[in-house]
Write a structure and sequence with these properties.
Length: about 325
């Protein structure tokens, strides 16, 4: 069922891109949809704050070495990887797509899929909840700073100085998030009971932002600047980055002596990037005309990471079940006189 839900969302993303390509929003409709999109992003982060369980965070906070490693992978390893890939990307891709790769590298980890894959693979779920949530919360501050340092060079900024950009993040993302967290004692039970329904609000907000982003870019001639070769190059680079992230996460966690359960958590939380946070942040940080190209690498990487991590999670889940099943025949044979 989980795979079907992910596939449905992916199909929705492709439909939004196709719809924006054939019927991009223009004129007054674009202005109205822009305001609706801003409200949808605020609602998205309000729900993120309201869904955040403080009890789960407290339960995982003591595992500071694991959290530090996950945050280092997310906000140090990936940005360094992006800088290393940048010269090659500039030779093979447009500056906007290269900027999209760098933006992908400074985003926080996913929350829902990281926790889901950790649970499926029999990892440390409490630590995954804490790490993924901390990554997203810190990403509200760290991602704009890293974007200003590594990605933006003036021309593609959505709005002036670094302080102006940080305020936009605070106003559109952090304040709704904090409001949801403050209201959780009163609305938390309702939110928890209706998580399956509210998930569609999350996904609907992202789909709306994707439609608006590609509408703006299509109006600026998006598909005249992207070739099939560029899409193949983006896919290959995404696979390379994900393979490096997964390999380094496994190697580092084993070198530092983490348990298998913690290793699984580190791999899934430290190697993934959040579409749910990335698309709204891109809308705040980048000029509308470049938005479609900038989020395209993120959309490709998002789907690749889901498919690869689903295979890994199922593999680890089967391995976790084997020791429990293996002793059964031996025990049976010993009982025979």
């Amino acid at each position: 069922m989980r795979r079907l839900a992910l596939d449905a969302f992916t199909i929705g993303l492709m439909v939004m891109v196709l719809l924006a390509s054939l019927l991009p929003a223009t004129g007054q409709a674009a202005l109205v949809l822009g305001d609706v999109t801003t409200l949808a992003i605020g609602l998205l982060f309000f729900l993120h704050g309201a869904k955040l369980s403080r009890e789960a965070l407290v339960a995982g906070l003591t595992h500071w070495r694991l959290h530090l490693l996950v945050l280092s992978a997310t906000f140090v390893m990936f940005p360094l990887m992006g800088l290393a890939i940048e010269p090659l990307a500039l030779k093979l891709l447009t500056p906007e797509l290269t900027m999209g790769i760098l933006f992908l590298c400074v985003l926080p980890s996913t929350v829902q899929s990281s926790i889901a894959f950790t649970a499926l693979a029999r990892g440390n779920v409490a630590a995954a909840v804490c790490s993924a949530t901390a990554s997203n919360f810190l990403g509200i501050f760290l991602t704009p700073l890293l974007v200003g340092t590594l990605v933006l060079q003036g021309a593609q900024s959505a709005g002036g100085s670094g302080l102006a950009q940080i305020w936009k993040i605070v106003e559109q993302l952090l304040l709704p998030f904090l409001a949801g967290q403050l209201l959780r004692p009163w609305i938390g039970a309702f939110i928890d009971r209706h998580k399956p329904v509210l998930r569609y609000v999350d996904q609907g907000s992202i789909l709306l932002v994707v439609y608006m982003a590609f509408s703006e870019s299509v109006n600026e001639g998006l598909w005249q600047h992207i070739s099939g070769t560029a899409l193949v190059v983006l896919s290959v680079l995404s696979c390379v980055m994900l393979a490096i992230a997964l390999g380094l996460s496994v190697w580092t966690s084993r070198r530092l002596g983490f348990s298998k359960e913690d290793e699984i958590t580190i791999v899934f939380c430290g190697s993934k990037k959040s579409l749910a946070s990335g698309v709204p942040m891109a809308k705040v940080l980048f000029a509308p005309s470049a938005l479609g190209m900038i989020i395209l690498p993120l959309m490709l990487f998002h789907q690749i990471q889901l498919m690869v991590c689903a295979v890994l999670a199922q593999k680890w889940a089967r391995r976790a079940e084997e020791p429990q099943e293996a002793p059964a025949p031996a025990a049976s044979s010993r009982s025979v006189p």
